[in-house]
Structure to design on (285 residues):
């Protein structure tokens, strides 16, 4: 179960004012975290009858967090039974435990926002570009939290979505969210994991960011052309905890048939093999 101390959870100390009326939406979520604990929590939120065309995002979260993600779903009504037939109390915007994240339990259709950085203010999309969320859609907010201290922690996250009217949307944006499940780092050893993903239609890439856990020592993403020839490095970071996103100026034009290969390098100082997984005791790429 998920320990809670709802009365003590407050987002007041997070300095992020909501968008002006009619110009966007602020999402918040908080949970109490016992000493020496780690898990993920989720919360369902319904978009209004006008839908949502997201043109920019701003994020603030407090102590205890590891990452925050917001997913679109296929639900037209608030789901109360997960994919395993289990009843979950999702009513009234309740925060509920989702230890493996929302993907194994709920029908997700994509990522519409998120951050690994406690303060993140990415560049807005270009004029006429937005992530489109249909009217009355249900989205799910996900917070992966870690409290390595002997004291309980009240954690909170604020997320602002700034929006534009539907008639101004000329191009639809989205996330390429790639996950490498083939990771194994031997005890007191090093390893490297690489995955190459094809680009199946012409795309314009505005920004990018890596994600690793504490054994991650280096990350690099490379672009290859349709003949499999190396073109250029498009991202590099050795910071696993707060990797800096890159904004491409000018935007990166990638034709169909090209591919992106991303590699994570690891150094494991523990006396056990570390494999891929969702916890900070596991690794990611």
């Amino acid at each position: 179960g998920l320990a809670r101390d709802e009365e003590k959870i407050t987002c007041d100390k997070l300095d992020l004012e909501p968008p002006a009326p009619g110009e966007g939406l602020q999402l918040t979520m908080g949970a109490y975290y016992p000493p020496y604990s780690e898990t993920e929590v989720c919360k369902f939120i319904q978009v209004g009858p006008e839908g949502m065309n997201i043109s920019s995002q701003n994020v603030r979260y407090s102590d205890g967090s590891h990452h925050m993600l917001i997913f679109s779903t296929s639900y037209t009504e608030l789901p109360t039974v997960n994919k395993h037939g289990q009843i979950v109390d999702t009513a009234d915007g309740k925060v509920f435990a989702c230890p493996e994240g929302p993907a194994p339990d709920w029908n997700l259709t994509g990522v519409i926002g998120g951050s690994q950085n406690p303060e993140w203010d990415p560049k807005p999309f270009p004029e006429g570009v937005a992530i489109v969320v249909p009217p009355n859609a249900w989205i799910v907010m996900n917070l992966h939290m870690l409290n390595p201290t002997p004291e309980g922690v009240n954690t909170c996250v604020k997320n602002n979505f700034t929006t534009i009217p539907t008639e101004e949307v000329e191009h639809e944006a989205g996330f390429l969210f790639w996950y490498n499940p083939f990771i194994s780092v031997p005890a007191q050893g090093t390893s490297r994991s690489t995955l190459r993903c094809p680009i199946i239609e012409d795309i314009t890439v505005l920004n990018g960011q890596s994600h690793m856990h504490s054994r991650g020592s280096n990350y690099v993403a490379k672009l290859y052309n349709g003949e499999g020839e190396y073109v250029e490095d498009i991202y590099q970071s050795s910071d696993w905890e707060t990797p800096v996103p890159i904004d491409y100026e000018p935007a990166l034009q990638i034709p169909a048939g090209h591919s992106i290969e991303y590699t994570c390098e690891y150094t494991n100082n523990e006396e056990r093999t570390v494999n891929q997984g969702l916890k900070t005791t596991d690794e990611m790429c």
